[in-house]
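The protein record filed here.
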Amino acid sequence: MKNIYTWAAKPAKRTLTVGDLKAAKGKRKFTQVTANSVEEAEAAEKAGFDMIISNAKNVIPVREGSKNLFLTAALVLNEFVTAEDIMRGAFKALENGADAVMTPRSMDIVEMLAKEDVPVMGHLGLVPRKSTWIGGLRAVGKTANEAYELFQKFKRLEDAGAFSAECEVIPENVMGEISKRTDIVTVSLGSGRNADVMYLFMEDICGDTENPPRHSKAYGNLLKLRNEIKVERVKALKAFKKDSMSGKFPGKKQSSNLDKNQFEEFLNQLD
């Protein structure tokens, strides 16, 4: 556990720092998962994950759930639009307890943040919100030319000052060669085993989505439990309504009465 000061100038402890991640590149694997609530962050820490990533607006509850894990705050495209929005959002997320920010924005935005010593994770490969530019949702780097162009983007991201990159749906062998040739800590989301960090969404790991992406693997079945809860909720509501209409509810256990003498006195007072 490392002692740090947060961007709010408060002492804290972290399992990892940016320095640790950079020093361990190519030598040790790490794991990352999304967490956007107290409960999800608690679960990630109890499960022994190294890193968590949340939407910037959820940093406070996530940090409440996990005091010590390395936390990256995602500056969502449509929520942080202008350069000023991004800078203010980054500093607020760090003040609230994040250790880094993630942005899929341009190299200029990454450079702007990095110049202020903000630890920045970029986003390369498939960026779903920008998928119209590549003809829809697909792997990026599936031809030699496209793979080399992707490598050049990694080098530009490195030059812009990012310490890390979310690497989404890149062929595994391409990812491996790029990761060996960049100082950036590579975070694989559907990009195979040859990156520095293995990453999946919480809902995909826990089996809490109806249409999981091909690169995911479910290790639980929360969706089944949620559907069972929906059925049980309606079942309980129908039973309550039925008993209420038939006079079975409330019963003796759910009601109380004045004793006989007190009730008669009450009736006299009413008369």
Q: What stands out?
A: The longest strand covers residues 120-125. The two ends are 76 Å apart (CA to CA). The chain has ten helices and ten strands. Strands lie at 2-5, 11-14, 30-34, 51-55, 70-74, 100-102, 120-125, 164-168, 185-189, 197-200.
